[in-house]
Amino acid sequence: MPETILVVEDELALRDTLAYNLKKDGFTVEVVGDGRSALESARKIKPDLILLDIMLPELDGFEVARILRKEMSTPILMLTARDDEIDRVVGLEVGADDYLTKPFSMRELMARVKAQLRRSRLLREELSQLGAAQKQQEKLKFGNLVVNLTRREVTLNGEPIQLKPQEYELLVFFAEHKGQMLSREFILERVWGWDFIGDSRTVDVHVRWLRQKIEDESSSPTRIVTVRGGGYRFEG
């Protein structure tokens, strides 16, 4: 079934060009020309990706992205005629996944569209596999460390330990990839999400906090080990 793309662009000529090229590539395309219509259409058709201009009548693209990001995880590729860094930062902060400055080549646009759709598909597949795995196995056990997936509870030596939400998500991610070397960038993308604005130091800080709670000696970790020049590996 063709993936659906919502094009939100008030410039008629560009809107028609985008729609033509996307349809030619096999996508189903819906087009609107203002911010309020963008919200209505996105809620109605649940597109697989949104191409969103910033300068729009009714509501600008920043506001549209901010509202939609609270309601859905659909990838948003923002389009703008301005190349100011502050616009790119604001766009990403309100929930955009990528940013393209006009004028742009149709070839580059199509490459970015396909990249975002590919990432979205992979994420859905991972979530689906994770959901199936969780149904089959409610608890993950590593010696005296037990992760109860149903209750979102972690115990060490039979005693519950208090983890912040992101620490818990990080531990579950490690547990599901036991024995694998995971780069900081890969962990950041999968645990914090595609639209997180931050760097790999975020991972290091949370690993340090997690080690303090689940390791016998956090200064000499045996569960979450550092791979020199690579990242981390969970040994269980």
Task: From the structure above, extract its key features.
2 domains, Arc Repressor Mutant, subunit A, five-stranded parallel β-sheet, Rossmann fold, four-stranded antiparallel β-sheet, 236 residues, alpha/beta
Strand and helix map with partners:
Layout: E1 4-8, H1 12-24, E2 28-32, H2 35-45, E3 49-53, H3 61-71, E4 76-80, H4 85-93, E5 98-101, H5 106-136, E6 139-142, E7 145-148, E8 153-156, E9 159-161, H6 165-176, E10 181-183, H7 184-192, H8 201-214, E11 224-227, E12 231-234
Parallel strand pairs: 1-2, 1-3, 3-4, 4-5
Antiparallel strand pairs: 6-7, 7-8, 8-9, 10-12, 11-12
In short:
The chain is of the alpha/beta class and 236 residues long. The protein is 47% helix and 21% strand.
Strand order of the largest sheet: 2-1-3-4-5
- In CATH, the topology of the largest domain is named Rossmann fold
User: Helicity, in percent?
Assistant: 40-55%
Q: What shape does the CA trace take?
A: elongated
Residue stretches low in confidence (pLDDT < 50, at least 5 long) are none
Q: Write down how many β-strands occur, each being a DSSP E stretch of 2 or more residues.
A: 12
What is the domain total for the residues?
2
Q: Write the CATH architecture name of the largest domain.
A: 3-Layer(aba) Sandwich
| Relative strand content | 15-25%
The description of the largest β-sheet is: 5 strands, parallel
H/E order of the elements? Answer: EHEHEHEHEHEEEEHEHHEE
* CATH H-level superfamily title of the largest domain: Response regulator
CA-atom Rg in angstroms: 21 Å
Distance between the termini: 41 Å
**SS-derived structural category:** alpha/beta
